């Protein structure tokens, strides 16, 4: 009986091998099925979906590879879009679309919304209407995990190629936005081949920004790897050291490009007997793959019979992936508010990770995975079993919080969701481990760019201005818009992370509550904060309020504008710290001298002066005179409002070294940049 299984299994293995050997690395097909909304069998929605698909299959033989169709009326309307790779011929395109539709129906059987990337095309459908704006979710990325031998040379060549292709692709017309090209690198005349494509309905501007985001993401995930693909619904980037596209494209565009996009697909089907052949091969591959995996799983399972915990672990992984998917699908920043008691009970389950999962994700807290050291413990990068990247904060064992309070606070913080806040995904509580799991933000923190002479050029003024706006909105959300009123208490440039698009995300908010410092503080007057960012009333008397955050915000803005670290800034001549120096320059009409020389060229004097003015208002000594974050946002957005003149900034921290230790009985400080916990006695 066993042998009757083995022979087909071996055959399938062989087939699988052949399937893989036929192309290069075969990443396709890739599916994204939205699993929080299903339609029922034989429903109107299904009928409409079939109609839409039939219309895609039928018309894909004409045109230039982009097809947009819809069927039915709301609430059962279905929109389906197919986009073929710009270099393939119409036969290949049509076959790819037909196969993809079959695969999509098999893999995402009754999902309301789904997407497939095949090697020659992508197909997606949804109950919402797709519009011609950059759509970034769901997305996928694939890579070979093989590094180029000389990463620097490779990267440099790739960057040049990327710039050229992006411009070319974005410059395409409404029929096709596509570019391919290659470039040699290294001594042995190896080549990089790259392909960039946008959905042709995007504007050139949107195409350009989509491609730069996607390219940057490919660098973020797979720096130096020789075979990488990043796929968004609206655009994609792929490069490899092996040639993988047709040059020139199989279909030429008409020479005078028509100004209007082609008309939507017309329904009406034709039979096709070739279809079955094209379906059988990939299906056999997929089946073969599944069988191999099942075989492996059985084998492994036998070996680890005793480990029942595994199942539970896998489960929590899945629950989590669907949680993230839901959130990803919903682009609105703020799902957070509607929390009922039942949701909170349910929330614990979906927020809880077990230690095994996290250890597997971080290589058991391997040192090489460490990406930072915060005030309350080290931070590790991890990759969950489903491929998702996370940042894991391992709280130091001394944190005083009991388990229940810890969980309660995590649930509250996980509800705070905003574009400009790093998302808290969950926690892990196991014996003496307390871990916080955050979304991973690809581009490190603001100080990594701002204070490094080789990198600060990457932050021109428009980017810095955008970052200031983002921080403002994030802080406003913490202070006023969320249901909780969160005082950050440790806002600083190293707590501002940047995503691949250089959008700021504030991290470590609510941490004082999670580790229970807020409670402890009442009893022992411990002060949490960082030198240079602490408002005088907080540093001297332990009084904290939203206005102490506003103070820290002002310092951050000054650092962004001047490119100078507040903790390092110390003017020996007249014993001034950064904020005081800025204030004096302002009063004396020399404020433009503050501006980081690398951005002087790109900056708008109006914007810079306004930001300096705002920063100085925020760091005023008088607590009540400092603006609220809401007011800051208002004056950032509205240039017709006249700004008050800032009054004197505090002068309480003349030097780092003597700081305010005369006021404290014991000061336990680590480095000047890291968060300090200070026992202060009045
Ligand atoms: C939708 O169906 C998929 C499987 O077909 C299932 O995994 C998922 O839980 C379903 N979702 C809902 C909300 O019913
Ligand atoms: C859907 O309809 C077909 C025929 O119209 C029928 O054979 C099938 O059983 C139906 N399925 C369900 C789930 O109702
Ligand atoms: C994709 O198109 C190329 C021709 O451009 C073809 O050789 C290849 O087989 C196609 N891939 C699949 C999976 O059909
Ligand atoms: C699509 O379906 C989801 C899930 O049922 C629903 O929440 C959403 O409102 C629908 N969208 C449209 C545009 O009908
Ligand atoms: C698809 O076509 C419809 C109707 O012509 C249009 O409103 C919609 O914007 C189109 N969507 C895309 C992504 O082109
Ligand atoms: C590839 O290079 C990265 C650093 O850029 C390194 O972390 C990774 O381990 C390398 N991978 C392999 C397979 O050598
Ligand atoms: C691509 O690079 C890998 C690793 O450097 C090498 O093994 C492979 O032969 C290269 N492929 C081509 C087509 O150059």
From TrEMBL:
The chain crosses the membrane at residues 277-300. GO terms for biological process: immune response; response to oxidative stress; signal transduction. Residues 365-640 form the Protein kinase domain. It holds the Pfam family Stress-antifung. This is Uncharacterized protein. PROSITE patterns: GNK2, PROTEIN_KINASE_DOM, PROTEIN_KINASE_ST. Its main location: membrane. One of its GO terms (cellular component) is plasma membrane. It is found in: Membrane. It catalyses: L-seryl-[protein] + ATP = O-phospho-L-seryl-[protein] + ADP + H(+); L-threonyl-[protein] + ATP = O-phospho-L-threonyl-[protein] + ADP + H(+). The keyword Repeat applies. The lineage of its organism: Eukaryota, Viridiplantae, Streptophyta, Embryophyta, Tracheophyta. PANTHER family: GNK2-LIKE DOMAIN-CONTAINING PROTEIN-RELATED, RECEPTOR-LIKE SERINE/THREONINE-PROTEIN KINASE SD1-8. GO terms for molecular function: ATP binding; protein serine/threonine kinase activity. Residues 27-130, 136-244 form the Gnk2-homologous domain. InterPro entries: GNK2 (IPR002902), GNK2_sf (IPR038408), Kinase-like_dom_sf (IPR011009), Prot_kinase_dom (IPR000719), Ser-Thr/Tyr_kinase_cat_dom (IPR001245), Ser/Thr_kinase_AS (IPR008271). Keywords: ATP-binding, Glycoprotein, Kinase, Membrane, Nucleotide-binding, Receptor, Repeat, Serine/threonine-protein kinase, Signal, Transferase, Transmembrane, Transmembrane helix. SMART domains: S_TKc. It is a single-pass membrane protein. Residues 1-23 form the signal peptide. The keyword Coiled coil does not apply.
């Amino acid at each position: 009986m066993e042998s009757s299984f083995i022979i087909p299994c071996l055959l399938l293995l062989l087939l699988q091998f052949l399937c893989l050997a036929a192309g290069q690395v075969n990443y396709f097909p890739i599916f994204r099925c939205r699993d929080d909304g299903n339609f029922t069998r034989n429903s109107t929605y299904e009928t409409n979906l079939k109609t839409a698909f039939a219309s895609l299959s039928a018309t894909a033989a004409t045109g230039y590879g982009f097809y947009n169709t819809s069927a039915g009326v709301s609430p059962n309307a279905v929109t389906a879009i197919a986009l073929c790779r710009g270099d393939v011929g119409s036969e290949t395109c049509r076959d790819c679309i037909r196969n993809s539709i079959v695969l999509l129906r098999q893999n995402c059987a009754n999902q309301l919304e789904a997407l497939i990337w095949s090697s020659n095309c992508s197909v997606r459908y949804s109950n919402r209407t797709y519009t011609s704006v950059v759509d970034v979710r769901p997305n996928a990325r694939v890579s070979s995990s093989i590094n180029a031998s000389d990463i620097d040379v490779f990267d440099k060549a790739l960057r040049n190629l990327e710039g050229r292709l992006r411009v070319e692709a974005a410059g395409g017309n409404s029929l096709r936005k596509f570019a391919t090209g290659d470039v040699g690198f290294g001594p042995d005349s190896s080549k990089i081949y790259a392909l960039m494509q946008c959905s042709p309905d995007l504007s050139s501007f949107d195409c350009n920004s989509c491609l730069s985001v996607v390219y940057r993401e490919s660098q973020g995930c797979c720096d130096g790897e020789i075979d990488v693909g990043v796929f968004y619904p609206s655009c994609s980037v792929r490069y490899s050291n092996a040639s993988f596209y047709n040059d020139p494209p199989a279909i030429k565009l008409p020479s005078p490009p028509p100004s209007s996009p082609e008309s939507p697909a017309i329904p009406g089907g034709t039979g096709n007997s070739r279809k079955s052949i094209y379906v059988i091969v990939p299906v056999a591959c997929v089946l073969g793959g599944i069988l191999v995996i099942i075989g492996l799983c059985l084998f492994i399972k036998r070996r680890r019979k005793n480990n029942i915990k595994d199942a539970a672990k896998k489960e929590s992984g899945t629950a989590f992936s669907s949680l993230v998917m839901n959130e990803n699908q919903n682009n609105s920043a703020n799902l957070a508010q509607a929390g009922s008691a039942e949701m909170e009970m349910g929330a614990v389950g979906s927020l809880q990770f077990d230690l095994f999962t996290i250890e597997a994700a971080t290589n058991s807290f391997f040192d090489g995975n460490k990406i930072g050291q915060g005030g309350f413990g080290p931070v590790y990068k991890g990759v969950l079993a489903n491929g998702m990247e996370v940042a894991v904060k391992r709280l130091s064992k001394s944190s005083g919080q009991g388990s229940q309070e810890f969980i309660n606070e995590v649930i509250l913080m996980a509800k705070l969701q905003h574009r400009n806040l790093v998302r808290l995904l969950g926690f892990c509580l196991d014996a003496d481990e307390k871990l916080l799991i955050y979304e991973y933000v690809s581009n490190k923190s603001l100080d990594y760019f701002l204070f490094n002479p080789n990198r600060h050029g990457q932050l021109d003024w428009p980017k810095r201005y955008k970052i200031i706006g983002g921080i403002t909105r994030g802080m406003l959300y913490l202070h006023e818009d969320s249901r909780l009123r969160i005082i950050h208490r440790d806002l600083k440039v190293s707590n501002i992370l940047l995503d691949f698009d250089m959008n700021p995300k504030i991290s470590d908010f609510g941490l004082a509550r999670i580790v229970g410092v807020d409670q402890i503080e009442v009893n022992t007057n411990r002060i949490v904060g960082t030198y240079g960012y602490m408002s005088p009333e907080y540093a001297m008397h332990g009084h904290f309020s939203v206005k102490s955050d506003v103070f820290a915000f002002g310092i951050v803005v000054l650092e962004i504008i001047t490119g100078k670290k507040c903790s390092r800034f110390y003017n020996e001549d007249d014993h001034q710290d950064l904020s005081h120096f800025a204030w004096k320059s302002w009063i004396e009409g020399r404020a433009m001298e503050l501006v980081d020389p690398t951005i002087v060229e790109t900056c708008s004097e109006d914007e810079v002066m306004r930001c300096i003015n705002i920063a100085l208002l925020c760091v005023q000594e008088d607590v009540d005179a400092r603006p609220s974050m809401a007011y800051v946002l208002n004056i950032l957005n509205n240039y017709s409002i006249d700004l008050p003149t800032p009054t004197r900034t505090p002068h309480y921290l003349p030097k780092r070294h003597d700081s305010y230790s005369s006021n404290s009985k014991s000061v336990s400080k680590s480095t000047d940049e890291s968060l300090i916990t200070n026992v202060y006695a009045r």
